[in-house]
Amino acid sequence: MxxxxxxxxxxxxxxxxxxxxxxxxxxxxxxxxxxxDMDSVRDAARAEGARAxxxxxxxxxxxxxxxxVVAPPLDTVNRSAPPAxxxxxxxxHPTDEELRWLAASLIVPVQGVxxxxxxxxxxxxxxxxxxxxxxxxxxxxxxxxxxxxxxxTLRRLFTSKDGGLMIYxxxxxxxxxxxxAHLDRYAEGMADGIPLKQGQIxxxxxxxxxxxxxxxxxxxxxxxxxxxxxxxxxxxxPYPLLTGR
Length: 245
Ligand SMILES: [Zn+2]
Known about the structure:
- By secondary structure, the chain is of the alpha+beta class.
- The protein has helices spanning 20-30, 38-48, 96-103, 238-243, and strands at 3-4, 125-126, 131-132, 136-139, 145-147, 152-160, 164-171, 176-186, 195-196, 201-205, 217-224, 234-236.
- The chain folds into 2 domains: 2-54, no CATH class; 96-243, Glucose Permease (Domain IIA).
- The protein is 15% helix and 24% strand.
- The strands form 2 sheets. Strands 1, 4, 5, 6, 7, 8, 9, 10, 11 and 12 form a 10-stranded antiparallel sheet that branches. A two-stranded antiparallel sheet has the order 2-3.
- The model is unreliable at 1-7 and 9-87 (pLDDT under 50).
- The structure holds zinc ion.
- Residues 12-14, 133, 135, 137, 219 line the site of zinc ion.
């Protein structure tokens, strides 16, 4: 299993089933991009109140974390932040046992997509080769239902310039963060703190954020978190977990 100490939200990128010209165009569109600036995230958390702050104790998976999140206005995002993923040396690395447990707890989070159709894009270069993708892109027609990959809790509905409409969820063990990005829209009833059932429709595939308009896809990322920081952790490749390869 590949696990790198990087923030889960660092990079958005693109579908892999594209011709070279499009790849380059996409790479350009994704270059220098940070999905969520950590300072802005922290500012947003502070604005929600002290109990939302990362320093607070991990919330039980069943308890609402805070009220509705308000993403920082896009024009306040600090674009001078380093485009590289933020290392999170304090986050625990997943053990082999945890990864086996997680693999047994996941389904492909796009309706109708088989594991055999997935393409591992975790280590693909992004940002002009300065960093790796650290997520799984799952191409699908716009509007295809996005499913909760696991049982757990919806931690945050979030919007960012590059990730577009996003969902951050924790799994049932509260160890792992599951992040879904570029959603066309959320499913009805989605709200911070609600329980999620594996297979439940949580949104729809789209191109919000920096996804190429002609290549709707789900950007799906997993990280081993620490239970307190809903936006970061040690990135884990979803592909081998989903496919057993
Ligand atoms: Zn991606």
